Sequence to fold (221 residues):
Amino acid sequence: MRILVIEDDEALGASLTWGLKAEGYVVRLTADGAEGLWLTQEHDFDLIVLDVMLPGLDGYQICARLREAGKWTPILMLTAMDAPLDQAEGLDLGADDYLTKPFAYPVLLARLRALLRRSAQERPAQLRAGDLTLDPATHAVRFAGRPLALTPGEASVLEYLLRAAGRTVSKIELLEHCWDMASRADPAVVEVRIHHLRRKIDASIIETVRGRGYRIDPHRP
Fold:
């Protein structure tokens, strides 16, 4: 899952980036409001963590412009402005949640998971394909009732394929959503990760669609 963090506090931005990547998310960080809005127009993100007080454009303006443009990516506003009217303004402009600083990191993660489940794309509590299950909240994976030990990167690719619900996903799309910017140069890394996944689960679960990419049939027996 790809998360855009728009936060001008350098230390907090770095901390969020490090922590979210450790959870298996692909994170893009910017400290400028205008650049953040541009990124939302140029790239698809699964969720946006948005500060309010930003240079260029503030968080309220970014949120309002996104909703006016018909972009409904879930937005979590993250700010030190904790007055009830400030929170109400953010929510009225289209934000999905509002978390004030300072905050507990486990609470932030839980709220992000809740927003991902509620986004426009269906996000069930458990993803399944035959005997394979994945819990998006914990990235716990089981096959035929047996727990599997996957790396965060492997779990990210598996989750993305499961969420595609039978649609064929190209290597480029997987690179964009499951790798950070510095690792996207070579689509061969996708083949390597798919190979590792197939060694840990039933190899037939991830189908290769020649010339197009990969798919998982959610209705497999």
